[in-house]
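Re: How this chain folds, sequence and tokenised backbone to follow
How to read it: Take the token row as a discrete description of the fold.
Start of record: The labelled sequence and token lines come straight after this line.
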Amino acid sequence: MNFCVIANPEKYSVQNSLSRVVDWCLHHKKNLFASRRLEQYIKPHWIGSYLTILEEETEAIQKSDVIIAIGGDGTMLHTAHLVKERGNPILGINTGKLGFMANIQQERIEEALGLISNNEFSIDKRFMLKAKTSEGRSYYALNEFLFSKKDSSSMITLEVHYDGQLINHYWADGLIVSSPTGSTAYNLSAGGPIVQPHTSVMVVTPINPHTLTTRPLVLTSDKILTVKGSETTEKILFSYDGIILPHNSELDVEIIQSEFSVNLIQLPDQNYFETLRNKLMWGLDKRKI
């Protein structure tokens, strides 16, 4: 089994986790591939028969069976976009904050790699959403598409249709169209619901709507959701998974469940509700601490 490691050393402290991954692979004689951007964090004597440095992350991914992503959910999103057409399973090692997708703590690195090497894991398949613009460009999001205002001076108006029927003219600071995976990200902060993964739905959540009765909607993801901007393009930002996109014409975007999905590795003792309890501290009574 060949491994690849992906990390963002400029944002997260990855040295300890990276060292433990390399040590384990060398000790168990497993091939490990890394990109040039990680070379300065790798001891020179490690590089050899089992550890190979390649120029680009995409090259390392192509030679690997399993991807090890070290960081937070931002690193997981970056990795997901790199592998969406290949389907390599991803192990997320959390060195960030919450880490809903990167849910392996550093103290479990060796245990996790051992279980994976013995094929003692399951796949948690997460679908992506697809957005197609009026200019014919397609974009993919594992978490969400975001429509937001560029400044703090005024709200924006968005006209939203679903399956050809008008839902609403939203007057708000913005609008989030989230996948179930992204329901615990910006959607949750904006007051949207938590949605169990593998549910074929998308969540439409307004950000600070002018009308207090405007609430989030959960819609099946097999039909087209259309979002149109009523203002000029200079007032609206359109982004996917935190990446801002340029748009030169009137904003007109169609969103639907995509053909791509991301395979997250889940260890035998893990499940989604355990992750929610741990990350959101459900059931924690501070009076007992």
